[in-house]
Design goal:
alpha+beta; 32 residues; two-stranded antiparallel sheet
Length: 32
Amino acid sequence: MVLHRSNNDKLILECTEEHDRSLKRVLLFNQL
């Protein structure tokens, strides 16, 4: 998994599809 910021200053996740689901869940929780 790689976390980096794009030109839009948005976090971009580069990961495998298996981790994608769990990561999205974590990101959603972080946004709450």
